């Protein structure tokens, strides 16, 4: 894995480095050549998920007994990094392996884990998580989706929006109110198996500023029957489970941020050294050299902070405030760096055929999802 420091991060061991090489090859050969098509169709081919699964690139941290890689967060993180470096944001593996699988591992019953995780690791089952609703994004305890117990089932009614992998998901963790009077203690997580579920409907695949190959969608539930056995953890414990897992989700976003900005910088240095203006390489201009020197500094310091956070997380010592710092600061840097890199490409930077344009547009959502950056600052301030 090549990084801004030039060295392999301490959290990447030999096995991680080997996995990184497999992942890089996979994205270069199986994904990057098809990016434009994935953008147009607004999703990646199912086959891509299956190929990733066959190569061991999905659910790397899931224990082997459930079909996963039996690794640590580091193994998933090298795969996320290689994907971000490649410029692909269509394959929703950060949600699939970085959010959904860890929820199932942490809170699923033996039966649930054995039923769903092997398919997720193989790429046969695509996972998604439905928290956001038209009236509840940041303010999650305001979700309106209702799950009412009726015998052996819950009856699910409501809707979700902005759901990554929404159009293709087979397994959806739905955040729903099981006891509307109980506030945050009335929120539960239900696992909906979407195939042929009566009353479940997928809405539009949303038109976005970037991330065009990602099937972000609206979802609707109209008296959908979910077996009571599909409750994840305890009834009413949904909010607490979500809060406990937030540092991981924020770190996944931060991992992607740093890998993407490292790639943007590399592309821009190459461009500045090869593009001629006024009979000399762009790189010979003092402004360009200074700009790149500043960007290289931002990217390097970002890498160092990220690596520290990943090491802490693997050691079980990443506190929520530091995870929030990583999320807001690294995604802010990602947006600033890709913007300044794009500028150095001139008009070419604005053209979709240039990777930097994709890196710039795709970066923007990073400041919004996973808890907005304003929320991150609010959380940090509470720790001060
Ligand atoms: C590409 C993409 C993919 C996504 N994928 C998923 C997914 O897979 N699953 C899912 O459930 N959701 C997903 N989301 C939704 C995302 O998590 C929400 O958009 C996000 O949480 C913000 O909620 P909101 O859009 O309702 O904005 P709002 O909550 O309406 O916020 C609007 C603005 O107000 C600010 N604000 C709100 N409350 C406060 C506060 N207390 N203090 C300071 N400022 C505040 C926000 O920071 C923001 O700037 C995705 C979004 C995008 C763009």
Automatic annotation (TrEMBL):
Residue stretches making up the Acyl-CoA oxidase/dehydrogenase middle domain: 128-224
Q: Which InterPro entries match?
A: Acyl-CoA_DH_CS, Acyl-CoA_Oxase/DH_mid-dom, Acyl-CoA_Oxase/DH_mid-dom_sf, AcylCo_DH-like_C, AcylCo_DH/oxidase_C, AcylCoA_DH/ox_N, AcylCoA_DH/ox_N_sf, AcylCoA_DH/oxidase_NM_dom_sf
User: Per the database record, which ranges form the Acyl-CoA dehydrogenase/oxidase N-terminal domain?
Assistant: 14-124
Q: Where is the Acyl-CoA dehydrogenase/oxidase C-terminal domain?
A: 236-384
| Signal peptide range in chain numbering | none
Instruction: Check the record and name the Pfam families matching this protein.
Output: Acyl-CoA_dh_1 (PF00441), Acyl-CoA_dh_M (PF02770), Acyl-CoA_dh_N (PF02771)
Top-level taxon of the source organism: Bacteria
Cofactor dependence: FAD
* Keywords of this entry: FAD, Flavoprotein, Oxidoreductase
Q: Which PANTHER family does the entry link to? A: ACYL-COA DEHYDROGENASE, ISOVALERYL-COA DEHYDROGENASE, MITOCHONDRIAL-RELATED
Give the family this protein belongs to, as stated in its UniProt record.
Belongs to the acyl-CoA dehydrogenase family.
Q: Which protein, by its recorded name, is this? A: Acyl-CoA dehydrogenase family protein
Q: Which organism is it from?
A: Nonomuraea typhae
């Amino acid at each position: 894995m090549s990084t801004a420091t030039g060295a392999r991060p301490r959290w990447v061991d030999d096995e991680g480095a080997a996995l990184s090489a497999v992942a890089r090859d996979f994205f270069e050969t199986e994904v990057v050549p098809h990016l434009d098509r994935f953008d147009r169709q607004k999703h990646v081919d199912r086959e891509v998920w299956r190929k990733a699964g066959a190569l061991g690139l999905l659910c790397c941290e899931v224990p082997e007994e459930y079909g996963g890689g039996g690794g640590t967060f580091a193994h998933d993180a090298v795969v996320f990094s290689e994907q971000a470096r490649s410029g692909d944001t269509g394959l929703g593996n950060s949600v699939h392996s970085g959010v959904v699988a860890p929820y199932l591992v942490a809170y699923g019953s033996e039966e649930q884990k054995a039923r769903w995780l092997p398919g997720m690791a193989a790429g046969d089952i695509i996972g998604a998580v439905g928290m956001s609703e038209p009236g509840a994004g940041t303010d999650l305890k305001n979700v309106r989706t209702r799950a009412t117990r009726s015998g052996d089932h819950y009856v699910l009614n409501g809707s979700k929006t902005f759901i990554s992998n929404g159009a293709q998901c087979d397994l959806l963790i739905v955040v729903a109110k099981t006891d509307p009077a109980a506030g945050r203690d009335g929120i539960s997580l239900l696992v909906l198996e979407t195939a042929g579920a009566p009353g479940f409907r997928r809405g539009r695949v949303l038109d976005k500023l970037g991330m065009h190959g990602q099937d972000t969608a609206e979802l609707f539930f109209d008296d959908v029957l979910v077996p009571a056995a599909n409750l994840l953890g305890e009834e009413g414990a949904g909010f607490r489970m979500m809060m406990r897992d937030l540092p991981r989700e924020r770190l996944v976003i931060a991992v992607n941020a740093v890998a993407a900005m490292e790639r943007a910088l590399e592309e821009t240095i190459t461009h500045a050294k090869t593009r001629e203006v006024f009979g000399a390489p762009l790189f010979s201009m003092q402004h360009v050299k200074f700009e790149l020197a500043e960007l290289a500094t931002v990217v390097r310091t970002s890498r160092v902070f990220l690596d520290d956070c990943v090491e802490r997380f693997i050691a079980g010592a990443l506190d929520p405030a530091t995870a929030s710092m990583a999320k807001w600061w690294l995604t802010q840097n990602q947006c600033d760096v890709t913007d300044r890199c794009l500028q150095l490409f001139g008009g070419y930077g604005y053209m979709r055929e240039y990777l930097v344009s994709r890196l710039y547009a795709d970066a923007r959502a990073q400041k919004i999802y996973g808890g907005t950056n304003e929320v991150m600052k609010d959380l940090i301030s509470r720790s001060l």
